[in-house]
Design a protein that fits this description.
CATH superfamily of the largest domain: lpxc deacetylase, domain 1
Mean pLDDT: 82
Strand content: 25-35%
Oligomer: single chain
Length: about 500
């Protein structure tokens, strides 16, 4: 989705018009490796010998893991959407295919500014090497770095983001470059360390890439029982016992523990799939917290595109509905005024009102086959209930699916959004505006909707501030929930 914004001029214009306060993106060339390089070693989890090849890749490939030990050599894109486990390390999964402990090699590639590469493995994890990214940095330098024709945009964090996961606190703030400030300690506050660094390819290699992983002695029994360190040893990890530091060599940095935590952050944030400019501030970070921050940054990154996706087709293309006359409340009361005038929508969208199809079309610009609301059955404060009669004549059943008709889940989401848009029109100042889709979160589809079903759409407005509205939506059939979501939208002038 991010790539669509980058390469589609029309959507860029739309997003810029909606969000003129956003700065122009920083654009540079994508990079890949000049040649293939190889490395072999022991896997941390399995303790088996692992061979790894780093291969050049074409533009827009991104970073991908390829399991050559499995039939068909399946690939997993290094994206946060594919994170399936974050216990002690970051694991990616796609179906039954998994790759463990991806953060160290991803940090080496991202730290060097490699956008496209294939990480080829003959096991389910890269070699652990010495527990840092030092060997992987050496490989990247040996392979060399080459610019590609396609551009890459550095994403600038536009507003502060905060994530709290257990004992971990993560935040990112707008910044002119990529900076990490981190505090690390165990639960008892032992070996508390602090370090801050502006991340560049040079500072990454010198100040972070050599920092080794570490664990506390009392954790080892748990790690062994859970098969997490079959390949672990003092050759690839530092062990802290009481006040003693057990290692085969002196510490490489005075603050090696916190610097390794920062190394992990660089690797986990590479799962965003795009370089970022922002200042990350982390207290007792973990892989879980790192990847949750990556998801939050990705959600912020997508908002300009999502806001440009309107609920409605262009209103000019829709025929203007005629006003529906309503009985006068008194001899001097007037009939319903012109469509989309403030008094019209205020009169129609009120507590206790029910709306038929013609009245719905006075409020919404949608028209069949994109109108997903047949009538409104109840309006009660911030809550509204509407109905969609799902018939075999719906045009989407022709291709979704022949012989097995099912209403697409995205159209149920669209129905929730349209109903939320109706509720927003109860405020006079919103009359005549269009609702633009910004985002949908916690979306769940629970069972199919078929021809003959009556889809009841229930929406409750949870927040309305200025032009922004947030609502919880739920679709039911015969009292059973079939889908639900939290939707956010923006009101814009026609």
């Amino acid at each position: 989705m991010v790539g669509v914004v980058r390469n589609n001029p029309l959507q860029r214009v739309i997003a810029s018009a909606l969000f003129p306060w956003l700065e122009q993106p920083l654009v540079s060339s994508q990079h890949t490796l000049k040649q293939s390089v190889s490395f072999a070693g022991i896997g941390l989890h399995g303790g088996n010998r692992v061979s790894m090849n780093l291969l050049p890749a074409s533009p827009n490939t991104g970073l991908r893991f390829r399991r050559v030990d499995l039939d068909g050599a399946p690939e997993i894109e290094a994206r946060v959407d594919h994170v399936v486990d974050t216990q002690r390390s970051t694991t990616l999964g796609k179906g039954a295919v998994k790759v463990h402990t991806v953060e160290h090699v991803l940090a080496a590639l991202a730290g060097a500014g490699i956008d496209n590469a294939i990480i080829e493995l003959d096991a389910n994890e890269p070699p652990i090497a010495d527990g840092s990214s030092r060997e992987f940095v050496r490989l990247v330098k040996e392979a060399g770095r080459v610019a590609q024709a396609d551009p890459v945009e550095v994403y600038r964090v536009t507003a502060p983001i905060e994530v709290n996961v257990g004992d971990s606190q993560m935040a990112v703030f707008p910044h002119s470059g990529f900076k990490i400030t981190c505090t690390s300690s165990d639960k008892g506050g032992r070996f508390t360390q602090f370090f801050t660094l502006e991340i560049t390819p040079a500072s990454w290699e010198k100040e972070l890439s050599h920092a080794r992983t570490f664990c506390f002695y009392e954790e080892i029994e748990f790690l062994i029982k859970n098969g997490l360190i079959k390949g672990g040893s003092l050759e690839n990890a530092i062990v802290i016992r009481d006040d003693a530091v057990l290692t085969t060599e002196p510490l490489r940095y005075p603050e090696e523990f916190v610097r390794h935590k920062m190394l992990d952050i660089v690797g986990d944030l590479a799962l965003i799939g795009r370089p970022i400019h922002g200042h990350v501030i982390a207290t007792r970070p973990s892989h879980h917290a790192n990847t949750e921050l990556a998801k939050a940054i990705l959600a912020q990154m997508r908002r300009p595109l999502e806001a440009a996706q309107t609920f409605a087709p262009p209103p000019a293309a829709a025929p203007e509905a005629k006003p529906v006359a309503k009985p006068a409340k008194s001899p001097t009361a007037a009939a319903t005024p012109t469509v989309n005038s403030p008094t019209s929508t205020e009169t129609l969208v009120r507590d206790g009102a029910t709306l038929d199809t013609m009245q719905v079309m006075q409020i919404l610009p949608h028209r069949p086959p994109f109108l997903m609301v047949d009538k409104v059955t109840k309006i009660d404060g911030p809550r509204i209930v509407a109905q969609k009669n799902v018939t075999m004549g719906e045009p989407f059943f022709e291709g979704h699916f022949p012989g097995h008709p099912i209403m697409p889940g995205v159209l149920q989401l669209e129905a929730m959004a349209q109903v939320a848009g109706i509720l927003m029109m109860r405020q006079a100042e919103n009359a005549g505006k269009l609702a633009y889709f910004m985002s949908a979160e916690d979306v769940k589809w629970r069972r199919p909707v078929r021809p003959g079903d009556i889809l009841m759409i229930e929406v409750e407005m949870t927040k309305s501030r200025g032009k922004i509205g947030k609502a919880k939506g739920k679709c039911t059939v015969d009292g059973e929930v079939v889908s639900e979501a939290d939707v956010t939208f923006m009101l814009m002038d026609r």
